[in-house]
Every structure is written in structure tokens, then in C-alpha cells.
Amino acid sequence: MGDRRSVWGIAAGIIISLLPVTSLAERSASGHLNILYWQAPTILNPYLSSGPKDIEPASLVLEPLARYDETGTLVPWLAADIPTRANGGVTDDLTTITWTLRPDLTWSDGTNFTAHDVVFTANYCMTPDGGCQQVGKFSDVTTVEALDDLTVRLTFAAPKPFPYGPLVGVETPILQKAQFQACLGAAAQSCTAQNAAPIGTGPFRVVEFRAGDVVTFEANPHYRDPDKPGFATVTIKGGGDAISAARAVLETGEVDYAWNLQVDPAILDKMADGGKGQIIRSFGTPVERLMINRTDPSPSLGKRRSTRAGGPHPFLTDPAVLAAMSAAIDRAVVAELGYGAAGRPTCDILPAPAIYASSANDACLTQNLDRARQLLDDAGWVDSDGDGVREKDGVRLSVLFQTSTNPVRQDTQALLKSWWSEIGIETELRQIDPSVFFGGDPGSPDTFQKFYADIQMFTNFFPGTDPEAYLNNWTCNSIPEPANNWLGFNIPRYCDADYDALAAKLAQTSVLEDRAGIARRMNDMLMQAGALIPLVHRGDVSARSNTLMGVRMNSWDSELWNIADWTRAR
């Protein structure tokens, strides 16, 4: 990316122009802020999105009742405080939580923010056929009601020891009722203007949106803090790749902040020698993992492809195959070569916070090719024709392994292909453009939720420090399928009644230590079933310009969570 056009050139896409960029120089003295999210945003409605490339840019505009700071502490945001049993905000029977809103809130169009907007948002997500990606956060919610203009009460069907799932964190912000009231249910997907330019309470408002390319924001003139934000305008640009994004901050200095720098750590450190910027890192819960398709992805199945209706996978439900594939991987090498100081080998999908981390699966930390071969031998998988690929009952151990286009992921793919070849498993590699792979287009055959492959690799995380909603992703009713428009995060199509029972038990358990014990058991069930094969506990890696002040790297919420505090050094 040698010239500015390579970062900020205009790409084709939907263009929605909304407002003239106003001058707020007296309030936003730091001028313009350039941010690069190389996985380009395609929608600014977190309820209809499945990835941070959309959810985090939307966080400049849309805000939740509470969120997590950089230490993982839950802090009030649009709410006046955090409801607890001690302050009366949560009832002793744990079935209701009452939120009191700040009295100084205004939407960016100048209208009043009220409890009715909060009630509407909950109903928006819970309305059937709306395609809400965050519906798991509203598990067990029966009613949401406005007690007055500043008070909202949520009632749960059962005691909710951790009632901070709905409307808390970057994934479930508040929508304006007046803007979205015609977008309930099946109409949600067709509300193009609203989904591209939501009205919010955040420090910025959308000026222009080019889907898959760029979003331009200006300071919200009705923001509750008269001295913020520090910048008058912001551009979030998509496109390119992680290496060019890093270069734009660390070497050329044309960008102020670059997100998700999944770049060879040696290359990244060398770039930082350019003196234009700094690499910033933090650890939360993200794990780079392999998702194992437990259903048959054969194209011959038509609409039943990669669904439970199409039947089980020909060999990826065999515990011996899954255990062998995991044992063949040298996670320490993957972490060191791909992530450096921002990666730690892991055998768990739930590596943090520490109280939830299991040690039951740590044997995978040591690569053991001999054990992998023996597991396959004992299960009857043999290379009978000498072509290097094992087979059994006419089925060859040949996998299609897909992931998003990214240098570190392609290096990891190559490593795994080599190790699996050593134990007699053939691997075809496939790379998909990130904006497509992580996109929500139900018509695309290449989305990670449709999963038309045997194995795929990516990272996601849960905001905050309680894993209940995250672990609910692998319950039976979270499986993407044609009937639900391929929504849900149970990508492996894992379904176990015992796991679902533990999820229900977790929802009713209030003692932290007991919750942690249940969470560890759920983690272990997923690992031992081979539904997922964790590789690396990933730290978040981004870069900021040396002139950009106020950034507090946050792995528990949006990286842009405190953008109102960002300023330019003078």
C-alpha cells in the first residue's frame, strides 16, 4: 500500500448519503480521524450482523445500557448504574432486573431517548422471523416493559443469576423506536436505510455509508458530553489486508488506527521500527479454532447439504479421526509463528477468565504424531493402496479446509495440511474473501454459517466476562439451517441433550464458583466430542499512530468503545 489511493480509494457498493458534514471545530478540535478495518463493514445494525467488522463500526453510533471496560469490568453506559440485588435493581428471586436510564440522553436527531426505545429494541430482536443474530442474549426473557420514561424492567421465565445478557455490551445496543418501528420481523432485512445509517446516542453519527468500502461519521451535535468527542469527523475504511493495514499506520503514517493485525509477528515488529506508530495488544477470550462439520457437506445433497437432515459427516463424527487430527497439531509452533507475543497455545474454547479455564484437555498442548497414527490404525483407517491417504469402507480421509483470506491463516492452513499429510489425511485448502466469509448474505454459498466444507477456521469471542450466552451458541437450537435463514452460531451442528441440560442449569445457577464449574464441564464436552479443535488463545493486535491519544485497548467489548475520549497529540 504505497500511496493513499490504495487505502482510501473508492470501491463499488451501496452509497447512502445522509447529512452534510458539519463543523464542530470548537468542540472537536482534533480534526479528522482515519481508521482502517480491512474487513470492510457491510451493515451497521449489530442485530443483523455476525462479525466485529460490522458491529464495532456501529458502536460509534449505537450504545448499550452497560458495557465492559478494558479490565472486563461492567460499567453503566446509557444506564445510570448497574442494577444488583444489593441496590434493589435485581429482585431476590433473580427473575427481574430494572434499569434506570441516564436523564441526559438524546438521539442524534435531537429527539429524547426513553425507556420505550429500550423496550422496542428487545422486542425487535425477539420478534420471530426477524433474523436477529443476537437472540441468544435474550434467552428466557418473557417481558420487557417501560415503568416510566426512564425505567425499564425485564422479567425472566426462570431465575437469572447473571441478568446482564440483554441490552448489555457491543452486540446488543439500543435502537431508536421511531426509526426502526417499521422493521419488525420479516421486514428487518429490507430496511436498508435504517441498517446502513442508524440513529444513535453515541459520539458520532453516520454521514455516508458505502457497503463493503467506507463509512464516514461526524460528531454527534447532541452528544451528552459537551466536550466530546475529540474528533470532528471519522472515516472507517475497509479493504486491503492486514499487512497493508499495519503498514498504513506503522510505516507510512496515513492511517491513525488499524484493527485486527493478524500479521507474522516478525514482520509486524519490523514495521514498528518505522517510528510512525505503536503496536497495541490485549488478551480477552478470542480463540483461533477449527470448526468441525458434523454433517455431510456433499453438494449432491442439495438443500440438505451441511444440515442435520442430510445426515452425519462420513468420517468427522469418528472420535478417533478427530482425536488424531488434534494430536497431529503443534500448537506451540502455530502460536509462535503466527502470533508471537499475541498468541498462546490452547486446548479449550473457554480459556479466560481464569476461573472458567479447564485443564482437562491439556494433553493436546504436546504434538504426538505417533499417537495420531495409532489412533487411526486402531480405528481401521488404513492406506491400503499406498497413495498416502487412509480409507475405510470406501471412504477416504480427504477434507476441504476453508478459512478467510489472511496471511497468518494461510500459513496455519499450510502447517496443518503438512501435519495431517504425515498421518494419512489429505487436505484441500480454500480461502474466501473475509467480507463474504463473515458476511450475512443467506444467498451466498461461502459464508461461515452455511459451512459448505469439512473444516473451517476463524476466531470469535464473547463480550464481557460471563460465558453463559457464549456457551449457548452450541445448544441444539442454535444450529444454522435453511429454516432459520442460516442464523445461529452452532457452526459444527453439534447437538447433545446433556449439553443443553447443562446450559439450562447454568442459566439457573447463581454462585460464581458453581457457574464456573458448569462452564468448564460444557467446555470439556465440546472438546472431547471434537466439535471444535482450539489452536491459539489469541490476543487482539491493533496499531495506533504515535499522535493518537486516549486509546484504551479493550478485548471485552468494542475496540472503539471509548472513541469519544480519543484526541490528537499537539
TrEMBL record:
User: GO CC annotations?
Assistant: ATP-binding cassette (ABC) transporter complex; outer membrane-bounded periplasmic space
GO BP terms, alphabetized: peptide transport
User: Which is one GO molecular function term here?
Assistant: peptide transmembrane transporter activity
The protein's matches in Pfam families, at most eight in alphabetical order, are given as: SBP_bac_5
As for subcellular location, the record says: Periplasm
Solute-binding protein family domain mapped to chain residues? 74-476
Q: Region Disordered: what ranges?
A: 292-313
The principal localisation class reads: periplasm
The record's InterPro entries line, in alphabetical order, gives:
Peptide/Ni-bd, SBP_5, SBP_5_dom
Q: Which family does this protein fall into? A: Belongs to the bacterial solute-binding protein 5 family.
Name of the featured protein: Peptide/nickel transport system substrate-binding protein
What broad taxonomic lineage does this protein's source fall under? Bacteria, Pseudomonadati, Pseudomonadota, Alphaproteobacteria, Rhodobacterales
